[in-house]
Amino acid sequence: MSHRMFLRSLYRLQNLSRSSSNINPKHAVFAAFQPLLHNRPYANTPQPAASASSVNQTELAKFAAIADSWWDVEGPFKPLHIMNPTRLAFLRSTLCRHFGKDPFSARPFEGLKVVDVGCGGGILSEPLARMGASVIGIDAEEKNIKIARLHADLDPVASSIEYRCTTAENLVEEQMKFDAVIASEVIEHVADPAEFCKSLSALTMSNGATVISTINRSMRAYATAIVAAEYILHWLPKGTHQWSSFLTPEELVLILQRASISVEEMAGFAYDPLTGQWSLSDDIGVNFIAFGVKISQ
Ligand SMILES: C[S@@+](CC[C@H](N)C(=O)[O-])C[C@H]1O[C@@H](n2cnc3c(N)ncnc32)[C@H](O)[C@@H]1O
Ligand SMILES: [Mg+2]
C-alpha cells in the first residue's frame, strides 16, 4: 500500500466516522480501508456522474447464459425461488406497516407503485403484482426481460406487469418515481453500488421505501454462498458471485444514508439444510435484506 493510498484511507475513515455516529468504529475502519483491499470505488471516493451506467457487462453475461432457466424451479435460480416466500414475508410486513396497509388482506399492496430493479425473469415481480402492486420490472439484460414477459403473460394478473429492458439510472432520467423501489440480489452485480443506491433513491418518492437484499462480505458467506453453493452443492454456476463485490450491512447502511435513504429495519435469511427452506432471522451474517425510507428533502 503506497503512502498516498494510506493517507487517502485515513481521510476516508475520518469522514466515515464523522458522518456515521451510530456506526461501530471498528466497522468504519474496515469500511474505510475496504476499497484498497478490493480495489472498488465506493463511499466517499469521487463518484462518476449520476448518469454513469450501473451495468457490469461481465455480470450481465452470466445471467444471459442461463436466462432460459429462470422458471426452472430445480435450475440455477432455485435459491431465488425458495427464497421468495421469505423475502415476500419481509416485504409484506415492512411495506404494510410503512404505508398503513392491512398485511392480512389478499392484495395488501393495492395502490402501491413498485419498481423491481434487476427483475431477471420476474420471480419476485409476479407475486408482487398478485399482492396488488402496480409493478414495473426492469432488467439490463434483454433476454431476461423477454422470458419475464412470456411467463407473466401466462397469468392474467401478472400480465399487468410492465417489463422494460433498462437501468435504474435511465428511469431517473425519465424522472419516474415509485412508492417502493426493490432491488433483490442485484447490488452485488452492479458496477458501482454507491451510484446504484443514488439512482434507487432518486426513483423513490419522498417518504417512500427502498428495499435491498444481498449477501454479506463475511467469511461465513464465502464458505456457504460461494464455496458450498457453487463448488460443492452446484446450486449456482461457478463464478456467479465475487466475494469482494459483497457489501457488509454496515457499508450498505452507509451508502444508503449518503443517498438519503434511512435504513429502518434489517433481517437475515437463514437457510435450514434439513427442510431446504429459508426463514427470516436476526442473523445478518450471510444473506440479508434492508428496508429504508427516503428522507424528505
Ligand atoms: C441474481 S439476479 C436477481 C433477479 C431478481 N431480482 C430476483 O431476485 O429474483 C440479478 C439480476 O440483476 C440484473 N442486473 C445486473 N446488473 C444490473 C443493472 N445494472 N441494472 C439492472 N439490472 C441489472 C441481472 O441481469 C439479473 O437479472
Ligand atoms: Mg447474486
TrEMBL record:
Pathway(s) annotated for this protein in UniProt: Cofactor biosynthesis; ubiquinone biosynthesis
Top-level lineage group: Eukaryota
Enzyme Commission number: 2.1.1.64, 2.1.1.-, 2.1.1.114
Keyword Oxidoreductase: no
Cofactor: Mg(2+)
Gene Ontology, cellular component aspect: extrinsic component of mitochondrial inner membrane; mitochondrion
GO BP term, example: methylation
UniProt binding sites for S-adenosyl-L-methionine: R87, G118, D139, S184
Residue sites binding Mg(2+) per the record: E185, E188, H189
Signal peptide: none
CDD domains, A to Z: AdoMet_MTases
Membrane topology (UniProt): Peripheral membrane protein
Compartment(s) of residence: Mitochondrion inner membrane
Function: O-methyltransferase required for two non-consecutive steps during ubiquinone biosynthesis. Catalyzes the 2 O-methylation of 3,4-dihydroxy-5-(all-trans-polyprenyl)benzoic acid into 4-hydroxy-3-methoxy-5-(all-trans-polyprenyl)benzoic acid. Also catalyzes the last step of ubiquinone biosynthesis by mediating methylation of 3-demethylubiquinone into ubiquinone. Also able to mediate the methylation of 3-demethylubiquinol into ubiquinol.
PANTHER family xrefs: METHYLTRANSFERASE, UBIQUINONE BIOSYNTHESIS O-METHYLTRANSFERASE, MITOCHONDRIAL
Name of the protein described by the UniProt record: Ubiquinone biosynthesis O-methyltransferase, mitochondrial
Organism: Helianthus annuus
